[in-house]
Amino acid sequence: MSFPNTASQSRRNAGRRPQKPQPRLEHWRAWFVLGCLLLMFAALLGRGAYLQGYNEEFLKDQGDARYTRTLKLEALRGMIIDRNGELLAQSTTVQSIWASPRSITLLPAGEERAKDWRQKNESDTVPVSAGEVRKLASLLGVSEAELHKKLFEERRNSAGETQKKPDFVWLKRQMSPAEGKAVMALNIPGIYAQTEYRRFYPAGEQLAHVIGFTDIDGRGQEGFELTRDKTLAGKAGSRTVIRDRRGYIVEDISTIVPPLDGQTLQLSIDRRIQYLAFRELKSMVEQSHAVGGAIVVLDARTGEVLAMANAPSYNPNSRAKIDPAQRRNRAVTDLYEPGSTMKAITAAMALDAGKVKPTSTLNTEGGRMTIGPATIKDDHPGGVMTIEQIIQKSSNVGAAKMALMMEREDHYNFLKSLDFGEKLNSGFPGEAAGRVRPWKDWRPIEQATMAYGYGASVSVLQMAHAYQIFANDGQLRPITFTKQVAPIPGRQIIKAETAQAVRKMLEMVTLPGGTATRAQVVGYRVGGKTGTAKKLVNGVYSDTARIGSFVGIAPISDPRIVVAVMIDEPTFEMRYGGLSAAPVFSNVVAGTLRILGVPPDSPTENILLSPPGAPELLEET
């Protein structure tokens, strides 16, 4: 039997490290740790469900506010052209610069923005240096102070509380494409360019009152730009995109809705005739030192407006400072008492009613007729005159006697049949209806004065409209500013023979012995009627202020145009319609008939002057 060597065994065991007892996790602790993990997971799960289910709209709105943008795709506004296709209004591409003040901040003075700043900084705002602001202000043409105010200054409400910076602010509207490109070349985050359109008017002040103009947002403000705004404007499109933190578009997140461009509007206006009418009117207003003037040229066969001009005018391409008085379309909005231009209408009424004939005579009683306390006077007293001579010499007494032959109601109905006191539905904002008082209120003196243009108010457009019956064998067609394929049906107001008889009287007015010899046109027979009416100033007829007017037709043999001219308050020496308005008519008719290719109906030596030494016949009413 052998025994182990206990000594060697002891030496081997002495070289080993004593082993520590292994800790054992209690059973309940394991479940506790697992439970905590499950609770944390459940809390995360619940929070996610809450955010996704109950607070989704809030989070979506926050995300959209930071990264989503809906870009407006501007529609191209429709062109406006004249009857021959000549351009009258067109939209051109421009660049507008805007910024998001909420996404940018200003670096301290002397510091520059690092190119890799976005990668090193987690902030939602981008720093912009003072040097970049200085360059941006220079290219925009604004002061640095103004730019600082828009981009960096805090805004406070009425209670003095600080408000959040806006996410959108315009910096400069409607810059040229080259200027916009230079701004964007600065590559400043938070600064963006948007394509817009700016309206351009090639005819400038000549057609300002007809075409009107748009505001900086492309909305019509005056004229056809306003009345046909929906047709011209079209419908804007949209594009919803996601931008990254530098402002670059990452992707489209919805279908692009393309813009619907506006329609082209073709007017009845002839740009050549418009230029002629505006030139002659402006020249007379300046020559006579008048307050203003208006002219309308109608196509006698269709009722189309070939020209309508006002003076003074304004340039719609430069709208920074426009006098409101210059924006007023006098031909449509301004009312005046027509004076003796109403006498032709009075004669037509009496002739058509069978009360008189062109050769019938009336005693003008030496140019004075008393009705009650009032006395009617003629500027050129006469005795017994035919109806033709009454119109030629412009006798107030003769016109009053013709009117008093009519029943008041019949007289009133005749004026209303010519649309006096009614809007002509021209489409212009502020169109005036004029005024004709109800016949039941008329006293004899009022009916008498209405015969020669006092007691009723009209516009220049209404007078041109009414004189159609003489050019159109008694028919009255609606006024239109759009080009017609065929004439609009009209109403027969007077018999054709009545219209022809008055047409002969109107020609006599322009011949020697009449009040409008300056209305004659070389190579063409013309006719018309002058008017010189006292102007109401503060409710009282002025002793010096007058309105000179002339309404006529040409050529007499086969009328093509009706022209109405009104000169408001010329100098007292030029107050007569035969001196101020008739020459404008003559020059406009001469050019218009040649533009339209109307052959002459009279020898070129047709201008007939009064005998040497004979005074020029001019009338006051």
From TrEMBL:
Under SUPFAM superfamilies, the record lists: beta-lactamase/transpeptidase-like, Penicillin binding protein dimerisation domain
Entry keyword Amino-acid biosynthesis: no
Indicate, by first and last residue, each region the UniProt record lists as having compositional bias (Polar residues). Answer: 1-12
Q: Where is the active site?
A: 340
Q: Write out the GO biological process terms.
A: cell wall organization; division septum assembly; FtsZ-dependent cytokinesis; peptidoglycan biosynthetic process; proteolysis; regulation of cell shape
Entry GO terms, CC: plasma membrane
- Pathway info: Cell wall biogenesis; peptidoglycan biosynthesis
| Homology family | Belongs to the transpeptidase family. FtsI subfamily.
User: What role is this protein assigned?
Assistant: Catalyzes cross-linking of the peptidoglycan cell wall at the division septum.
* Protein's recorded name: Peptidoglycan D,D-transpeptidase FtsI
Which organism does this sequence originate in? Chitinilyticum piscinae
